[in-house]
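Re: iron/sulfur cluster structure - here you go.
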Amino acid sequence: MKIKNRIKHIIKKFRSKGYKRFDGYLRIYLTLECNLCCPYCVNQCHSKKKIKNIALIPGNKWVSAINKIGKDVIFTGGEPTLHPDFFLILSSINPEIKIKVYTNLIWTEDFIKRFINEAPKTIQLYTSYHPSGGKPEPFIDRVLELKKHHFNIMVHSINHKNQIESVQKSWELFKESEIDLIIDEDQTVLFPDACSQDQKKSVLCSKKIILISSDGYRYQCVSKMVRRKDPLENIIQDGLKSDLVVSHCNEYGYCAPCDMLGEVTIKEK
Ligand code: SF4
Ligand code: SF4
């Protein structure tokens, strides 16, 4: 199968994979800072309004909140491995809680060694290959090193219009190394109305997803989280309320590309 067709096939698989299901995970953005700056990033790393971490929650507070809530957890960001207590958090969470880490894998050799020695082998790594982080070969070496040490690791990239060619070329290199590079559709293409940043519409928005920012506050969606608008409960102080959040929102059209993932219902008012 030619690369282009193969990529279409992979994207089709993604579309039919049931990306609307609520998975019950706490999605914790340990930090919104990142060591990359991708053109499709929602955290505004390339804008003048760059997000600063207003507060980072110390690892012990995250651990006690997560263990108390008892739900499985995804650590994401930004780049979650930049949190200074990253290893403490991984090693102190109740072993019955499943952990996934979303990372760009821009890791130094020392960091990889530490991860191999200290991280529980049950962690699932969801790594993203972003061409803004450099050529694929060093990334592939890091994946192979982690696989050699029996980590469960998935690799994906994004079919964004600015990087289609480089992603297609990289796909061949990953294949030669026996790594299945999953290519996800650019979500601004999948959900153009929601993310056009053209017109704002008033809607009733219901979302079943648990998004927690780096200061412990929950937000209904990523768009509101990166703008720090309408914070909900703080899971460090208040614990977690209902899985479902419903609001009258007058900013449909300015949703983040990933905001249409999870269980979402939008009704025009
Ligand atoms: S790696 Fe992720 S968080 Fe970092 S700049 Fe790229 S898209 Fe944004
Ligand atoms: S910005 Fe979009 S995703 Fe967020 S609450 Fe409004 S309609 Fe829902």
